[in-house]
Design a protein that fits this description.
The complex is a heterotetramer, with 2 copies of chain A (390 residues) and 2 copies of chain B (412 residues). Chain A has helices spanning 18-34, 37-44, 60-68, 87-99, 106-119, 122-132, 236-272, 284-313, 315-342, 355-367, 372-385; strands at 137-140, 156-158, 161-170, 177-184, 187-194, 200-204, 214-223, 274-275, 278-279. By secondary structure, chain A is an alpha+beta fold. In chain A, helix 1 (18-34) packs parallel to helix 4 (87-99) and helix 9 (315-342) runs antiparallel to helix 10 (355-367). In chain A, 62% of the residues are buried. Chain B is built from 12 helices and 10 strands. Chain B has helices at 2-6, 10-26, 45-60, 81-90, 99-112, 115-127, 243-254, 282-289, 301-323, 332-358, 376-389, 394-405; strands spanning 132-135, 151-155, 158-169, 176-182, 192-198, 207-212, 221-232, 236-237, 291-292, 295-296. In chain B, 50% of the residues are buried. The chains are: A alpha+beta (390), B alpha+beta (412).
């Protein structure tokens, strides 16, 4: 690609402009003030009985404030009533939410807003209006085996009725609507379904992550109207593919933020904890893993903003870059989560420590939208497919 | 079995016969709960009643403390505990609840306590009438055990104890604790003294026992606060300032490297035919049952490569334990020192690979009916940090290896 | 496999008996006295010009002494005039040779002796006699792409004439005979060819490893006699498969020995070299990699002796175990070689240091008989194939 | 270019125009040998003659030392070296042979030498008439530079120098050396003093220069023995005992973090269209051309996974350098400190993956006609240790990161 043939040249600064900076700064302050780690622990870790792992632990008042700040519509185009922020700005916002391990359907709703924006028809725009009004969404598409592909949903749409089960739906007990991937004549269609619709059963999973909830949805001949179908015939896959880079960057941003919390918290412990008459950080067995973790985070963040910038400026590269970002974020998180617990020693093994909350959230995030090996496999396919253009 | 019997001394041979006969009719029925695998897992009164009855019965039959002198409640035999242990394992007996007492407190008391104290403590320890716990670790003394700060202040022939111990298994049931305390702040190693202190009788007074919750949400450890516990000087082991050396006796026996054989029973509830074949390798089985984008995960070459990496490590550890006994091919000490690091890191890494195989299903806990392998892997991963942290972190293990097996300068 | 159905139970001590111990002790002393590292350096590293990387640098007198010790026939059955030592004993011998990075065709000749023993006919026994008389062999089978399979040779046997090229032949300039894998009617046959045969061209490669030589052999209508064909019709693959575990263990043994030299040499440096007023070994960035290297070596050695023992006692498991051993040896060597240079600092980057000789030898060994990923792929295939028996 | 030009001061603008005009007619013809990429690679008299002529010509035209005062042979301009460098790079000029002099000795002399010494040394340094080398590292002083033992003993207003320096590029051509020497054995950091010492004139007398052979068999470094070299006190920089601080000026300029812009030219022989696309990723290309058991290596999923891992790192490094400049998204210092570790470890690991892709063909050196990619990868792997060891080993880099970016306690 020569310079002259590209209309939009990716800016060196990722297009991280004053608006984006302001959004990031507000988010940083908001979460620091409203959800410090000890408060998070009180919110999600009061109950240590794993049997209650299907509980939905969140602060609805905090969520209302987030709605009031307009963050749900950050990524919605202005034509549909949203803020129309760049993907880079949204990434910066979500990074701050991830640093706080926010238990709320922010990422699912932002993700759905990208899919709905890509659908680009009146029904979809009406759904976007709901988000602008403060309603939350979660995208539901996974098979029982947990497929990461967009074409593996096991829900059937036939005669305007939904039947079947969809798995691994994020924050299902928190959201107002589901954006369901259902197959009509073997082709995916996207359907907006209110969470309280008759005939829809939300079955919470018992999960490890304390900051999320997850469920499988059973549809038993659930009648829907045409206005609920938000993808034009044959267009769902294209819309989903267009939104894929954004879905990936949202998770990556969350993971990068969480990883930075893990790094800083562990470094703080290493600066203060003494063993053998020295601060832990003196020992290279502590110092070097922390240095490596930092490097991994910063690589992942570099990929994250590159991918987000590509969404804004070079959409033809966005999926490739976003998959790189997820691969890098997964590698950073798996290495760093492990070290954050290990280097805390005994206290890191206790429930009262905060590090396990982030460890568990990162483990969960690692499985979302595909793990690192999956991303690399997709990368290789993309490169082979587009050999001449990349 | 036959091989072992061949090498028995006459005393061992007789005793082995006796054990076998007694066990033929005296192994208790399985409990109503899932049998425990270690005394450290005892968590309820129901557990306690069942296992204490068994320890008492085995003690009365002479299968516990066989090698301790009779004046301390033992059997007065020579190298017979080994025989009793072998026979109890074969007979698939329940475990003993008093593991800290039998494995750590008893030998320490035997080698370091005054005569009167031995006579007072050991019989009830062996019979299980009194349970023990271990008070070594503190919030500020983990890897660096010698930095314990729990302070024992001398008041005539009494000691006044203040401090905070942590990571204590079964403290909620213990009558006694073996305690490593500081008696001199000016000397790190020579400022330590070793005591046995009453716990149960002081609860709600100068001793508080609180359960600790693990990263998995399970209990199993406790912490103890000492707020002016007063004890007799007679409860001191060895000299003032010799605590570190006494603690080394305890730790050597904990690691199985001590000179006294710990009474051990077990085997109850172990499955008859555990699949130990290579085709039964748990991660391989898991990959066969999990799907990755709707294809069997074991057919993904990258997943398969990771499963095989773990299999190589698992088989390697088994062979490593085999090779270390062959003189001419391996230095025993160099190999033995590697064992903890090898096995604990393997367990952690294998669980991480399992989570990768499971993909989204790895988010499900053991209480979710859709969880593969009944949700054991996320829990296994979380639990694995207990092993890479406790009893010398992996970092400390690498120090030990570098220093003792390769002669490198100490890192501390 | 229940205990009762196995005739030969693998002994706990790997069958490492007094004979094996004696062989190992003699070898250890022999190499310590006759080929210490500084002497090796003089032998193979006098000339630092890479352009001369096809040179054959070895000590023929030392080789004659090895022949005189009977080590070439260590693995040859007594019925064929050899010593009939166990695979475990041979592994212990080769481990010592590897520790000295012996530049000589010991491994190729021992390897050929295993293949020839598996052939089990008169022609093969005659070739074994040559080895007993002190002649050296190298097995030649590889395609230009470097295939590790036994069925990919590009040499054709037609009308008792050999035509074609075979690649990556080890120590080709040193050996007296080649054991050539040639295809007759699409089926591998094994042919013994004197190195000086007319019509055979030995083309040395220019290689990195200073302790080996390597060549590709060109056969241009080379006439051979029936007596040179050592495999019965249709039996070559079976013989090669029988010998495969031994071929693998020989390379593993060499690598384990070399790795132990790398470990001890680097540990020695760490014990004596001072920086920042401390011995290098004080620093965990030095100590911990050395500890990890040691653990990796000892795991690889455990696999090595398990595989060798299986050759002797449980041949049905030997290939699987041998592939595990090579995977473990490769992992240990690649990690340790890197650390042995890195932890030597500046001096490790010089030609005058000894560590690069071992680094280069290990890199070469890693590619022999397949790398770690290849071994693991084969393992998975073996397990799938033999599911019920393993 | 246009963007840069926009920000030019009037002086820079004029000078840029002048440079462009001069370069339009004065860039020398390519040499008969393969153009070098750095002055440190100068190895033959032929190299030397060609590049010295270019430096002289560029110096005479005012493109070298533009920002140094005229009394020291400079151009007396302000922030114009940057402009000259940009224009020389665009014009694809040859490199300068005097890199140690221009990049390290000149700024150090400028900031720390006495007036007379500056006037004596700098003009010939800038013109290339006299070449320089750097005498810091010693066999016993690698990572721990402050432990240098080369000793300078004061004899009235002379100094007597004995010792051993190592890792010195182009010492065989150097007239002068910047030398860090010990003048007081009782104080590690304050016992160092910084000198400039004659090399060429003393060869065969009190100075010996010997080439060092690298792990690859190539030369490129030297070691120097000082056997009673006597120099004038006038060749001392800054005060006795201030050597460490002076050395910091040198190192800051070496890392490009100094206040004076180093004259740099280059670009000659760089290929017009280097394939920097993702599809042109070298390891991917290599995997496509290599076979693995007679199948294309890039179709092996495990190999492909490793290639993609390296691609993620390579693109990541590029984006890392991009992100570090964006305030609000990255702390510049934290990112900048990571750069050396990231890039040198990447090069090493990429070469290792290449060797894995090549399989048996990876045994072949660059002189073997069958070697894939002309045998560059084994050499690249061996050479990579130069980068992970020199200028602060990877281990030291991690110390720096932990200490400066995370505020952890010093490890030394």
């Amino acid at each position: 690609m020569s310079e002259s043939t590209t209309a939009l040249q990716a800016p060196k600064d990722f297009g991280f402009n004053a608006d984006a900076l302001a959004l990031k700064d507000i988010a940083e302050t908001f979460f620091r003030e409203n959800l410090p780690a000890h408060q998070l622990h009180q919110l999600v870790a009061q109950d240590s009985n794993l049997q209650n792992g299907s509980a939905c632990r969140w602060d609805k008042n905090l969520w209302q404030r987030i709605i009031d700040l307009g963050w749900l519509m950050a990524a919605i185009p202005k034509r549909a009533g949203g803020m129309g922020m760049s993907a880079v700005a949204v990434a910066a916002l979500v990074e701050q939410a991830g640093r706080a391990a926010l238990p709320a359907p922010l990422i699912p709703t932002l993700g759905a807003s990208y899919i709905l924006s890509a659908c680009g028809n009146d029904n979809a725009d009406k759904a976007l209006n709901l988000i602008c009004e403060g309603k939350s969404f979660s995208y539901a598409a996974s098979s029982q085996g947990g497929s990461w592909e967009h074409t593996d949903s096991e829900v059937i749409l036939e005669g305007n009725k939904l039947t079947g089960t969809v798995f691994f739906v994020q924050d299902a007990q928190k959201v107002d609507y589901f954006l369901v991937n259902a197959k009509q004549d073997g082709e995916p269609r996207l359907v907006v379904v209110p969470a309280n619709l008759h005939g829809l059963r939300v079955n919470p999973n018992t999960i490890i992550d304390l900051t999320r909830d997850q469920a499988y949805l059973e549809f038993d001949q659930v009648a829907i109207e045409n206005s609920q179908i938000v993808s034009d015939p044959g267009q769902a896959v294209a819309a989903l593919e267009e939104a894929t880079p954004a879905l990936l960057t949202l998770v990556c941003a969350d993971m990068c933020g969480a990883a930075e919390w893990q790094l800083q918290t562990t470094a703080d412990y290493a600066r203060t904890r003494k063993q053998f008459d020295r601060n832990l950080g003196f020992f290279q067995a502590v110092k070097h893993p922390l240095a490596d973790f930092m490097v991994a985070i910063d690589l992942a963040r570099s990929h994250l903003y590159n991918a987000a910038c590509a969404i804004d400026y070079e959409p033809e590269f966005a999926e490739l870059y976003a998959r790189m970002a997820k691969a890098a974020a997964n590698d950073a998180a798996s290495y760093g989560s492990k070290k954050s617990v290990q280097l805390h020693g005994g206290i890191g093994f206790t429930w009262e420590s905060f590090v396990h909350i982030y460890l568990k959230r990162q483990l969960h995030s690692q499985s979302l939208c595909g793990d690192a090996a999956y991303q690399r496999q997709k990368m290789a396919e993309l490169i082979t497919k587009g050999e001449k253009n990349i | 079995m036959t091989e072992k019997a061949k090498r028995d001394t006459p005393e061992q041979e007789d005793f082995r016969r006796y054990c076998r006969e007694w066990l033929a009719t005296n192994v208790p029925k399985p409990p109503n709960f899932k049998p425990l695998k270690s005394g450290a897992e005892v968590a309820t009164e129901e557990h306690l009643a069942y296992y204490l009855a068994w320890q008492r019965s085995a003690y009365d039959a002479g299968l516990v403390g066989c090698d301790y002198p009779t004046e301390y409640g033992g059997g007065g035999r020579t190298r017979c505990q080994l025989v009793a242990n072998q026979e109890m394992l074969l007979a698939k007996t329940p475990i003993f609840p008093g593991v800290i007492g039998l494995g750590m407190a008893a030998p320490t008391i035997y080698f370091h306590a005054a005569e009167e104290l031995k006579r007072r403590l050991l019989p009830k320890l062996l019979s299980g009438e009194e349970l023990w716990c271990q008070g070594f670790s503190e919030p500020g003394a983990g890897s660096d055990l010698a930095s314990v700060q729990t302070f024992a202040e001398r008041k005539g022939d009494k000691w006044l104890i203040n401090g905070h111990k942590i990571w204590t298994s079964t403290a909620q049931f213990a009558t006694w604790m073996i305690l490593l305390a500081r008696t001199d702040r000016s000397d790190k190693y020579n400022g330590l003294t070793y005591f046995v202190v009453p716990i149960k009788s002081e609860l709600g007074k100068s001793v508080t026992v609180r359960p600790l919750i693990k990263i998995t949400g399970e209990t199993g450890f406790n912490e103890e606060l000492f707020d002016g516990l007063e004890i007799d000087d007679a409860l001191r082991l060895d000299d003032v300032g010799k605590g570190w050396q006494v603690a080394m006796t305890t730790l050597a026996h904990e690691r199985g490297a001590g000179s006294l054989t710990t009474p051990m029973s077990g085997g109850q509830g172990s499955e008859e035919k555990r699949d130990t074949s290579i085709a039964g390798f748990p991660l391989l089985k898991l990959a066969q049952q999990c799907t990755r984008n709707n294809k069997p995960a074991d057919q993904d070459p990258v997943i398969s490569d990771k499963v095989m990496q773990m299999l190589v490590r698992q088989v390697g550890i088994k062979q490593h334990r085999r090779l270390r006994g062959v003189s001419g091919l391996a230095e025993y000490q160099r190999f033995a020192l590697q064992d903890k690091l090898l096995s604990t890191e393997y367990v952690q890494d294998a669980a991480a690979v399992a989570l990768e195989i499971e993909g989204p299903s790895g988010t499900l806990s053991n209480f979710d009916k859709h969880a593969p392998d009944n949700g054991k892997w996320p829990l296994a991963y979380l639990s694995s940090f207990g092993s890479t942290i406790a009893a010398g972190t992996s970092e400390i293990q690498r120090n030990i290896l570098g220093e003792r097996a390769l002669g490198l300068a100490k890192s501390k």
